[in-house]
Amino acid sequence: MGRLSIKAKLILALSLILIVAFLVTNIVNYRVSKASIRKSIVENALPLTRDNIYSEIQADLLRPVFVSSLMANDTFLKDWALAGESDEESVSRYLREIRDKYGFFTAFFVSDVTGKYYYADGILKTISPEDAHDVWFYDFKKLNRDYDLVVDTNEAADNTLTIFINHRLKDYQGKLLGVTGVGLNLQTVSDLLASYQKRYDRNIYLVDRNGLVKVHKDNSRVDRDNIFKQEGISAIAGEVLKVGKESGFFDYTEGGRHILLTARFIPEFNWYLLVEQDESEALKGITSNFIRNLLFGAVVILIIVAINILTVNRFQGELERLATTDKLTGASNRREFDRGFEQALYLHRRQQGPFAVVLFDIDSFKRVNDELGHLVGDRILKEVVALTTSCIRKNDMLVR
């Protein structure tokens, strides 16, 4: 392969400079933009979304906790239970009014004395430790808490998944009389969570202290999926559930996606609020811009290189013409004569062919310049060159 000409080297160097400068500039800008967006998500967007959702959850879900607390401290319910639970219709009416007034899915009271499960329509059943549906009652009695949230099926409503807020009902001496509270349709709560997710464009769900999903827009995941067993998040699940009063920020990879996650503990529910965002979705805009810039830059570089090639070729041709011809007449100059003479001499010595050099002058040319001026002399030179060019062969050389 022959050596590159100066022109080729110039064009290649310019092209490389343009390409490298453009790529470096765009890559640096992309990385800076990516880091800036990530920082904004981590320090502002996600924490703000988390805290807004936390406030909204408190506003939307603390009311049933508050109402169940009022029921547990209601003297009517205490006195009715202490009186022997004789008027069943009165407690059913009381529970019905609580349910309808606040728009709950259900309101209930389970007696620790008789084991009867009271709700708005009367007595549902008598609970038993052997009944799997009643395990919640005995588990709650063992807890050292005034209230608890449990996701369970509601036997009074065709086993619909329900979030029950259970609260201890005690007599005036602090002895347990039973458990009262209200229930929220899990689908309603899931729809509420889905509205948050749509509004904030984040993945939002609640898990308990064991990592079990308690509230999710997809009800099929409730009380089934556990973050300790899920791809990606399982690696950080332990750290997520250590979040206390201070919120935490985490990230993990799932299915090739980089997920940013922030968590906050909700002490009123004893659950954790998890808010996730797919970083690739957040970066989709600048990634598209980066690709568009690359394509646009490639077109611009091609145009610049093409203009450069045309310009270099034009000026090189002009320089070559000026280097070999007389500027005034267009005839060959002394430099071109030397080259042509050497070539003719070389062919003569090799092929023994004849060649001739003819010298001629213009008579009295100095008088023309002196008397008529140099402009006239220049015009005469041009006419002589034109006349001579018409009389010689194409492979002959006319030199001034």
Could you characterize what this model shows?
- This protein has helices at 6-72, 75-82, 88-102, 135-142, 186-200, 237-240, 279-282, 284-324, 334-351, 365-372, 374-391, and strands at residues 106-111, 116-119, 122-126, 147-154, 160-170, 176-185, 203-207, 213-215, 248-254, 257-266, 271-278.
- The protein has 400 residues and is of the alpha+beta class.
- It has a six-stranded antiparallel sheet, sandwiched between helices. A five-stranded antiparallel sheet has the order 8-7-11-10-9.
- A hairpin with a 4-residue loop joins strand 1 (106-111) and strand 2 (116-119).
- Helix 10 runs antiparallel to helix 11 (374-391).
- The protein is rod-shaped, with a radius of gyration of 47 Å.
- 21% of the residues are buried.
Beta percentage is 15-25%
* Total beta strand runs: 11
Order of helices and strands: HHHEEEHEEEHEEHEEEHHHHH
Number of helices: 11
Class from helix and strand fractions: alpha+beta
The percent of residues in helical segments reads 40-55%
Which runs of at least 5 residues are low in confidence (pLDDT < 50)?
none
Q: First CA to last CA: what distance?
A: 39 Å
Mean pLDDT: 83
Large-scale geometry = rod-shaped
Oligomer: single chain
* Largest sheet geometry: 6 strands, antiparallel
